[in-house]
Amino acid sequence: MCKRNPNGYGCVTRLSGNRTRPWIIKVTVSDEAGNTHQIPVGYAETRESALIMLAQYNNNPWNIDRDKVTLAILFQQWANIKLPKLSKSSRGALKSAFKHCSKYYGVKYRLIKAYQMQESIDNCGCGYATQGAIKALWGHLDKFAFECDIIDKMYSQLTTAAPVPDTKRTPFTEKQLEDLWHFVSEPWVDTVLIFLYTGFRLNELLTMKTGQIDMEQKIFIGGFKTRSGKDRIVPIHPRIQPLVRKWVDKDEEYFFTYQSRKISTTVYYELWKSVMTLINADKTPHEARHTMETMLDNAGANRKCIDMIMGHKSKDVGNRVYNHKTLEQLRETIALLK
Q1: How many domains does the chain have?
Q2: Contact 44, 50 (CB under 8 A)
Q3: Sequence-distant contacts of 21-28: CB under 8 A, at least 24 apart
Q4: Are residues 197 and 281 in the same domain?
Q5: Are 235 and 323 members of one domain?
Q6: 24 C-beta neighbours (distance < 10 Å), count
Q7: Structure pTM?
Q8: Residues with Cβ within 8 Å of residue 320, at least 6 apart in sequence
Q9: Which residues, listed in sequence order, are joined to residue 14 by a DSSP beta bridge?
């Protein structure tokens, strides 16, 4: 029987039979879903030494024999130290990936081989995105375990995941653009046009606050995905200024709102779908971004200006370091959209 200890502290238990080290030390860990499991972290010859090991673990999980560190324990420690440094989207993907490794939660990490990592990838039952996240998780855990001297070989380097399929993104056609302007008075059509004339990513516009729009200077200040895209300035094209003004004049916290609240991506996809049905098109919000970049490129716009508006990092070092474009030049670039 486990001696009663504070919740989450762990316990020691005597195993049956004639054993050299009959006392097992167990600790409680939580998986990605918040479910708790008891995981063995070591064995001891006496109850007293087992209790000492348990106390050492609760003081610092890495003060015990690193040969006994299981996948679940390693993940929990990695999640405490390394995970907060990653982006929000990466944190969510990696935490979700961990549940596909449940078969190995109690396995000593140093004993996990490449074929077992690969098995968790191949048999997850999900597409390329999840497979890539599981592979990435094993890579993160391997690096952390290597830093902690738990392993001396990083088997994650031998794993593979399904490749990202070729993109099928295509720009909106001229006919589809004309149809959008024809139906501009219909609900939510104006939001699609704003996407098309700004190049913002879906979440960049859905999370944009009204205060980020300066109608006097006629600019958006938004974006957050990359350092190049964060808080970038995008001039408001003359043709969509009345559409932007209508939303700004609602004087609500967020630029786009549904029932006076910020629109979630799930809800907006349904609203977007209704507009696509109206113009008989099958396009995504990211294809609106792709359309804008294509139109600017076809119009002969300066590459540096396109990169600044889209939030891309210029591939050319000279452009990246020395080429500084003014707001007026960005306005001239936006004006090339016909």
Answers
A1: 3
A2: yes
A3: 21/45, 23/47, 23/49, 23/50, 24/50, 25/50, 25/53, 25/54, 25/57, 26/2, 27/54, 27/57, 27/58, 27/61, 27/73
A4: yes
A5: yes
A6: 19
A7: 0.54
A8: 313, 314
A9: 23
Among 165, 188, 216, the domain boundary falls at 165
- Please report which confidence band the pLDDT of residue 30 belongs to, taking 50, 70 and 90 as the band edges: low
- One domain, residues 208 and 186: yes
Whether residue 298 sits in one domain with residue 213: yes
Same domain, 250 and 200: yes
pLDDT score at 62: 57
**Residue range 72-86: mean pLDDT, rounded:** 89
Q: Above 90 in pLDDT, residue 136?
A: yes
**Rounded (10°) CA dihedral 82, 31, 89, 153:** 50
Mean pLDDT, rounded, for 86-101: 89
Q: Which of 253, 290, 84 is nearest to 168 (CA)?
A: 290
- Do 111 and 142 fall into the same domain? yes
